[in-house]
Amino acid sequence: MTTVQVELLNFIAPHIFYVTTELIGNSRANFLSDVSARIRKQHQGALFSVGSDEIVGVIHEPGFARAVIVDSSNCENNSNNIFFCWLVDHAQLIKTNTIFKLPLEIQKATARCKAASLNNICYLEDHLDFRTTKFARSVPSIAPSAGVIECCLDLLSNYDKLELEVVENFENMLIGELIIYHNGAVYRLSEELCKKQLATINDLLFQ
């Protein structure tokens, strides 16, 4: 088990969020600036179709960024193509109508963000039990409720420091516990969700 300090880039749900571990100096900012400049200088013209999982260049203010196309529409009419792209270094989804062919060396550079997930967390939601107790009871759910997302975003909205306690690296996803430091207090995200009965830890479910 290792613990690393991280910066949160994009939080979607407890089972999928994106972080960077590049916190020393300006290494991340310098890399993104360098990639933007190289795409501007070296891109090989606009494209209308790409290979599976090919890294392309897109306009992303104030410059350019690398992306993977996750969906597209109106492909029969090139002038109106719309591409839905995942920015591999920014962990953002954008929509654009222009993509650029990139040299292989730019495509192959390591992505500057990492996917992460809380470990063995199982969501709970209340169901009314009309047949027996007549009261609401918590049952497992595969999808996070609005309360789960609200609780997480509230804790993550203004942290002083963030650490990821990594217990496993599964197919390039960091799995573990997110530790939040704020105003002298320390919060473990899984524990906070369990305290509010929004989730539970289920080791067997994920074996």
Describe the structure.
The chain is of the alpha+beta class. The chain folds into two domains: 2-22 and 114-201, Beta Barrel (OB fold (Dihydrolipoamide Acetyltransferase, E2P)), CATH 2.40.50; 27-108, SH3 type barrels (Roll). It is built from four helices and 16 strands. It has helices at 27-42, 104-108, 146-156, 189-195, and strands at residues 2-5, 7-13, 16-20, 46-47, 55-60, 63-73, 82-87, 92-96, 99-100, 114-118, 121-128, 136-141, 161-170, 173-182, 185-188, 199-201. Strands 1, 2, 3, 10, 13, 14 and 15 form a seven-stranded mixed β-sheet that branches. A hairpin with a 7-residue loop joins strand 11 (121-128) and strand 12 (136-141). It starts with a strand and ends in a 6-residue tail after the last strand. The model has no long low-confidence stretch (mean pLDDT 86).
